[in-house]
Design goal:
The complex is a heterodimer of chains A (650) and B (155). Chain A has a 5-stranded mixed β-sheet, with helices on one face. Chain A has a 5-stranded mixed β-sheet with strand order 11-10-14-12-13, with helices on both faces. A 4-stranded parallel β-sheet of chain A has the order 8-7-6-9, with helices on both faces. The mean pLDDT of chain A is 91. Chain A is α/β, with parallel strands linked by helices and 650 residues long. Chain A is 39% helix and 13% strand. Chain A is globular and about 90 Å long. Chain B is of the alpha+beta class and 155 residues long. Chain B has 2 domains: 57 residues, Arc Repressor Mutant, subunit A (Orthogonal Bundle); 80 residues, Glutaredoxin. Chain B has a 4-stranded mixed β-sheet with strand order 2-1-3-4, covered by helices on one side. In chain B, α1 packs parallel to α3 and α2 runs antiparallel to α3. Classes of the chains: A alpha/beta (650), B alpha+beta (155). The interface between A and B is large, with 49 and 38 residues. The complex binds flavin mononucleotide (FMN) and iron/sulfur cluster (SF4). The site of iron/sulfur cluster has 14 residues of chain A, from α20 and α22.
């Protein structure tokens, strides 16, 4: 076994012949070398294992060990490469094999124990068809018979992979491979031949909008920061991404960190700063270590540091670990956090682009926004404008999760119809239950239902449906999920994460949570004012939502009522069912359930009665028992312990 | 411990306010939590009242003020995990361990924490115990998983 840790090209060769070569097309002899670096041509078999976070949690570490053991035991001359994630989480761990002269073929759900069987097959020129995912297209190589092409699978066929094009293909820890796919050439072109203003102009012309949720024109933001007169400016890359269900930014760093770093460097040049920070949540160990390694490599190549490639441009990138608070994703809160204070938002204006970190002009940009930048300079702003819809240019990275067949991360042109995403790339809903809704944008977002699922996915179209795009999370709910419970969950999250500066946000969201807790629980007694409170609470939801939205300082509070408003709009029936019938037909709100004992099935075994925490079950041995409805709290313990399935939910 | 905290402080010679969070992170990485003494020392070094530092540290989810349990149980509670039943798993964990998120059992064996998203929604609901993952966890599995750590002792 041979593990190629060093690419067979010298650093100086890559620097002189590739990075410093300003022509669009590289000479053919250089291209030939790069094809080897990209492993389009291989002399020995290569085994690739995807080791992003989702792969590692699925067991890719064990897969990798088994591959190495297999090759070592048999003394096979082959190379083992760790790549990023393919994005197709359901299929993790993914292992790919490239044999000399043949196309690269991918296998799905390759846990450690499957490795010997699969490798036995491939090395003997035979593809075991049980676990094959597909083969990559490469016209110069011989194809495997009866193996589908990866780009024809529904999960991939709808995608347009610009940002994710290296995902699962190259090693995220190899700057050489990134350079061989065209990397860092845009950056050097920019700092050597464009002025700061030109860079801002090009990005503005491309129509790139911030992907952190706001959708502000990135080029415009840069211009503001660049025109303010100051002795120091800062660039902050927002990689905090703490909303539940969002992990696209993190995965982008794990699978292609150099793309982000190149974007950060171009942005830093555009606004004329030498100091950039990447603020990433401290829990994301894999992403942080890959990012730090990538920065180290870039410095080693002289791409970072003092007087980069003799251009006179200085740049330093520092990684700051966010100590974990959702609100620190908000730009001014993040600035406070870096300054060593509590991460509390402050009023805008002044906008950070005018007065931000340490009072200096500061541009805050999302990971995905910055990762888009290198390709804009590689292919030109008009290329970027040609992708997406009239109102929103470019692509968007989305996370598909929840009750959907294909879960994972995809990239589609903005303006793609949501239905095509869910039923195309996602291949619909598993099991027999029907589609209910799709939740977009996490705790600041809203729902789309069967009626408006053909909305195009872009800022304006979604906003018209009352949904805020947020960071790109898409959670699919089927009929086994309860909308009220989902909203309660978001309220619980927001209420905990509110920084507490504004009373409407701090107290209002808590009050909203109480309302939801009240309607997902059976009232203790029907008299008193608890019943009245329930109704009053729900009637107040709308006005409460309005007050919170209008009087909160930052986006967290302003957008907190979004799931409430959106669910009231589309799921009034569910509310009525919970309030009037005290029922949750999805069976999720446990405390609303009522149990009944089937007299024909109950043998009077007495197992359930002593287990009931509120003594709601009465009866005598060998005769059917009975549940006192008024006492029952719906905990379901009796349901679980009954051996005769005599207890059912009404 | 004194000496070790000093080693960390020495890495930040400027002693400016913006090094406060990285210092606290380093101390927690080393000791597992922020002790009262460490907070006082950091305060002296940065010339800040230790109450202020405590106020800052409590704002963030990362910092803890007591040692973590021998087995640190972390339940993913993202949206996807929630709709696939993490709420029930959480209740079951609370019942089994008799602690709420953020707490440590009295015998110091277990501590429990919620995570907003671990980034493996396709395996939800999921629990991480000291770096080992249990995926597709059902409420009924909780007892068995936790028992395996009680019996297994040191991990
Ligand atoms: C509560 C809250 C959380 C946010 N979280 C994030 C986040 O995790 N990542 C992000 O890029 N932007 C987040 N934002 C948006 C940022 O404030 C900011 O608008 C964004 O980083 C700007 O970058 P862009 O122009 O590239 O989109 C959040 C905003 C709010 C109000
Ligand atoms: S809206 Fe909420 S999170 Fe934002 S500043 Fe006010 S209290 Fe803090």
């Amino acid at each position: 076994m041979e593990t190629r840790t060093h690419i067979p090209v010298a650093k100086d060769y890559l620097k002189d012949s590739v990075l410093l070569n300003e022509s669009v097309d590289l000479p053919s002899d250089v291209e030939k070398v790069l094809r080897f670096v990209r492993r389009e041509k291989v002399k020995y078999p290569v085994v690739f294992v995807g080791t992003g976070s989702s792969g590692l949690i699925s067991g890719a570490g064990e897969t990798l060990d088994q591959v190495k053991r297999y090759l070592g035991d048999r003394d096979i001359k082959a190379e083992v490469v760790e790549t990023g994630s393919t994005g197709y989480c359901t299929m993790e761990p993914v292992m790919e094999v490239q044999m000399p002269g043949k196309t690269r073929v991918a296998f799905r759900q390759v846990t450690g124990d499957k490795v010997p069987f699969l490798l036995d097959g491939v090395f003997n020129n035979m593809i075991p068809d049980v676990q094959v995912l597909g083969q990559h297209r490469n016209p110069s190589l011989e194809v495997w018979k009866d193996v589908p092409f990866i780009d024809e699978l529904p999960f991939f066929s709808i995608q347009l992979r610009n940002l994710l094009r290296n995902w699962g293909r190259i090693s995220p820890l190899s700057i050489e491979e990134y350079i061989a796919t065209g990397g860092y050439r845009s950056y050097l072109k920019t700092i050597r031949s464009y002025t700061h203003d030109e860079v801002c102009d090009i990005v503005e012309r491309s129509g790139l909008q911030g992907r952190g949720g706001g959708g502000f024109l990135t080029g415009k933001k840069w211009k503001v920061a660049h025109t303010v007169i100051a002795d120091q400016r800062y660039l902050l890359c927002n990689a905090d991404e703490s909303d539940p269900g969002g992990f696209a930014n993190r995965a982008m760093i794990e699978s292609d960190p150099h793309r982000l770093i190149e974007g950060v460097m171009i942005a830093a040049y555009a606004i004329g700063t030498s100091k950039a920070f990447i603020y990433i949540r401290n829990d994301y160990n894999t992403a942080i270590s890959r990012l730090e390694e990538a920065i180290r490599q870039a410095r080693d190549y002289g791409l970072l540091g003092h007087d980069v490639f003799g251009s006179g441009f200085n740049i330093e990138i520092a990684v700051r670990k966010g100590p974990g608070a959702f609100v620190c994703g908000e730009e001014t809160a993040m600035i406070s956090s870096i300054e060593g204070k509590r991460g509390m938002p402050r009023p805008k204006p002044p906008y950070p682009a005018v007065s931000g970190l340490f009072g200096k002009p500061t541009v805050v940009n999302n990971v995905e926004t910055l990762s888009n930048v290198p390709a804009i300079f590689e292919n030109g702003p008009d290329w970027f404008r040609s992708i997406g819809s009239e109102s929103a240019r470019g692509t968007k990275v989305l996370v598909l999760s929840g009750r959907i067949v294909n879960q994972g991360i995809i990239e589609v042109p903005l303006g793609t119809v949501v239905k095509d995403i869910i039923f195309g790339a996602g291949e619909g809903i598993p099991g027999k239950k029907g589609f209910k809704a799709i939740q977009i944008g996490g705790p600041s977002g809203g729902f789309l239902t069967g009626e408006n699922i053909d909305t195009p996915y872009d800022f304006e179209s979604l906003e018209a449906e009352g949904v805020y795009m947020g960071s790109g999370g898409m959670v699919v709910l089927d009929e086994g999920c309860c909308i009220i419970d989902t909203v309660r969950y978001f309220m619980d999250f927001i209420q905990k994460e509110s920084c507490g500066k504004c009373i409407p946000c701090r107290e209002g969201t808590r009050r909203m949570l109480e309302v939801y807790e009240n309607i997902t629980r059976r009232p203790v007694d029907e008299n008193g004012h608890t019943t009245l409170e329930r109704f009053k609470g729900v009637m107040q939801l709308e006005s409460l939502a309005e007050v919170i939205r209008d009087t909160s300082l930052c986006g967290l509070g302003q957008k907190a009522p979004n799931p409430v408003i959106s669910s009231l709009r589309y799921f009034r029936n569910d509310y009525e069912e919970h309030i009037f019938d005290r029922k949750c037909s999805a069976g999720v709100c446990k405390e609303l359930r009522l149990f009944r004992i089937d007299v024909d099935k109950c043998t009077g075994c007495t197992v359930c009665a002593p287990k009931c925490p509120v003594s709601a079950i009465i009866g005598t041995r060998h005769h059917p028992f009975f549940i006192v409805e008024d006492k029952c709290t719906g905990c379901g313990i009796c349901y679980d312990v009954c051996k005769f399935s005599a207890i059912s939910v009404i | 411990m004194d000496g070790k905290t000093n080693d960390i402080l020495r890495k930040y010679p400027k002693g400016s306010r913006d090094s406060l969070i990285p210092i606290l992170q380093d101390i927690q990485d080393q000791d597992g939590y922020l002790s009262e003494q460490a907070l006082v020392e950091v305060g002296r070094y940065l010339d800040l009242p230790s109450g202020k530092i405590y106020g800052l540290a409590t704002f963030y989810n990362q910092f803890r003020f007591g040692p973590p349990g021998q087995h640190h149980v972390c339940l993913c509670h993202g949206t996807s995990c929630h709709v696939t039943g993490a709420g029930d798993v959480r209740k079951e964990l609370e019942k089994k361990l008799r602690i709420k998120p953020g707490e440590t059992t009295r015998d110091g064996k277990f501590s429990f924490e919620l995570s907003a998203c671990m980034g493996a929604c396709h395996l939800s609901p999921l629990i991480r115990v000291n770096g080992r993952y249990h995926t597709g966890v059902k409420p009924g599995d909780v007892k068995e998983i936790m028992d395996s750590y009680i019996e297994g002792g040191e991990e």
